[in-house]
Design a protein that fits this description.
By secondary structure, this protein is an alpha/beta fold. The chain has a single domain, classed as Rossmann fold. 59% of the residues lie in helices and 14% in strands. The chain is built from nine helices and five strands, in the order E-H-E-H-H-H-E-H-E-H-H-H-E-H. It has a five-stranded parallel β-sheet with strand order 2-3-1-4-5, sandwiched between helices. Helix 6 crosses helix 7. The chain starts with a strand and ends with a helix. It binds adenosine-5'-triphosphate and magnesium ion (MG). The site of adenosine-5'-triphosphate has 21 residues, from helix 1, helix 2 and helix 3.
């Protein structure tokens, strides 16, 4: 199986590039953000819990996210591979993903780090908030999410370098250009 982790700060383009990867490589997509937003929309208990954290720009607790991830992963049958979008976001989640995959005879094939400067992230997210009305895309919450990214998520860069699967992707440029770099990285695994 081709197991791709797509990584980057909020607004780095994980969702956009994931859709293209899914189409080209025929793999399944797990977006933890999309899963949580669907739960919120459906008014489930999980959605209510998640909303409290998301509106504050905080992460949902690891134990909850790890359970969700495993159940979505196991719902894919005869999968050629999976793209993990928005997971892992903490060292604990990265360790849990490694264990979950190992239990199934699998491993992360490549981790793509979409690298985008902070000013550009701010601009993109504020624009997305205006266009989509996504509740956490407002200036105050974006600032909190970026702080959370730097403190809890960015340490995964060194973690994955240590695993030997890290790939830096220049996340500034045209969507086609970025996608071409991503394809090269995936084809090289
Ligand atoms: P991008 O714009 O690159 O797609 P994003 O950070 O804007 O990324 P999502 O990945 O959609 O957005 O996540 C939205 C929110 O959902 C996060 O701020 C967080 O509160 C919650 N969330 C998503 N994934 C996780 C996770 N793995 N662990 C904890 N919380 C999560
Ligand atoms: Mg997203």
């Amino acid at each position: 199986m081709l197991n791709v982790v797509i990584f980057g700060a909020p607004g780095s383009g994980k969702g956009t590039q994931s859709e293209r990867i899914v189409e080209k490589f025929g793999i399944n997509h797990i977006s933890t953000g999309d899963v949580l937003r669907a739960e919120i929309k459906n008014g489930t208990e999980l959605g209510k819990t998640a909303k409290g954290y998301i509106d504050q720009g905080q992460l949902i607790p690891d134990e909850l996210m790890i359970d969700i991830l495993a159940s979505v992963f196991d719902s894919f049958k005869d999968s050629k591979g999976v793209i993990f979008d928005g997971f892992p976001r903490t060292i604990a989640q990265a360790g849990a993903l490694k264990q979950m995959l190992a239990d199934r005879g699998q491993a992360v094939s490549v981790m793509l780090d979409l690298d985008v400067p902070e000013e550009e992230l701010m601009t993109r997210l504020i624009k997305r908030g205006q266009e989509s009305g996504r509740a956490d895309d407002n200036e105050e919450t974006i600032k909190k999410r970026l702080l959370v990214y730097h403190s809890q998520t960015a340490p995964l860069i060194d973690w994955y370098k240590n695993e030997g699967v890290y790939k830096h992707i220049q996340g500034l440029g045209t969507m086609d250009g970025i996608f071409a770099d991503i394809c090269k990285a995936i084809e090289n695994v």
